[in-house]
Amino acid sequence: MDTHFLAEFVTGEPEFRQEPWYNEYGDCVEYLCANEAVVADRVDGILTLYRSAIDDRAIGFQLKGISAIMDKFGLDKAAVLAETRRDRLVSVMLLLLAALKQSSVTGTRRGLEMYGAALQELECAVGKDVESPQPACS
Amino acid sequence: MPATWQDDQAHIEVIDPRAPNGPRAKAIIPRSIVLQVYKTNPVAYENLRCAKEVLEDPCRIFEGTREHQSGGWCFVGRPGTWHIRERVIVPFPCDRVFAVYLNPRMVVYAWRAEKTDPDDPLSPIGFAQRYRRLVWTRTFSPSS
């Protein structure tokens, strides 16, 4: 394969991490739970669901207009960009619920299903983050 | 055409969506975005190759990608191949287009496949409702 045209920009090995991140250039939050190519499935002006290019299952989403959502609902940007992973997921869940509240597709079955799919992706990630209880020391 | 680098940005020469018949403009890929996808989403990093291909040879360019924001562009095209998993390269499907999104400052912030529209198989589905206007279209197709 040809050398990537941006290879000079990166060092080390690439890695996949299942965590949401705020994209300041697009004012959007991106979240992906599988290291696969995506096909966008636009729900409305706020949410785009990412479907796997391999089998069409929902594997993430893009949430747009984050600044406007935060302003409208008085959400704390610092909370969304919190350091700990679980806090991040919970904050993004809050953003998703806020987005759903102002979405134009709330009244449609498809709209609710798509927002539901996005929330479900996050719920799975939160579940995976919960550590198993450690055995008590004897 | 190779990308050029300046101040932690890669520059790609593109049709200027503000003046398609004028001199070419520079699309910007910030190093921070490249690093972000390299360290969280390697397939998206690999598919920046497709983004470059589409930026340099688009089929359509749309203006107005956000409802409450002026500017912003979407370059649409069909790369030859793409990564669907790490180290898995396949021909780009004929029932999809590859869309590259630029903010009003010409910064690339998203790139992905989209379903095609039944009225124009070289545009993303719902293009008439999603974008403010079509600013440029390729007037011929390369011979296949």
Helix content of chain A: 25-40%
Structural class of chain B: alpha+beta
Radius of gyration of chain B: 15 Å
Overall pLDDT of chain B:
92
The global form of chain A is globular
How many DSSP helices of chain B?
Answer: 4
Outline the biggest β-sheet of chain A: 5 strands, antiparallel
Oligomer: heterodimer
Largest interface: A-B, 35 and 50 residues
Strand content of chain B: 35-45%
Distance between the termini of chain B: 22 Å
Strand percentage of chain A: 15-25%
Give the number of DSSP strands of chain B: 11
The helix tally of chain A amounts to 4
What does this 3D model show about the protein?
The complex is a heterodimer of chains A (138) and B (144). Chain A has 4 helices and 5 strands, in the order βββββαααα. Chain A has a 5-stranded antiparallel β-sheet with strand order 1-2-5-4-3, with helices on one face. Residues 129-138 of chain A have low confidence and may be disordered. By secondary structure, chain A is an alpha+beta fold. Helix content of chain A is 37%, strand content 19%. Chain B contains 4 helices and 11 strands. Chain B is globular, with a radius of gyration of 15 Å. The two termini of chain B are 22 Å apart. Chain A binds chain B through residues 1, 4-6, 8-10, 14-17, 19, 21, 23, 25-26, 28, 30, 32, 35-42, 45, 50, 53-54, 62, 64-65, 68, and chain B through 2-3, 5, 10, 29-31, 33-36, 38-49, 52, 66-68, 82-86, 89, 93, 96, 99, 101, 103, 107-110, 112-115, 124-126, 130.
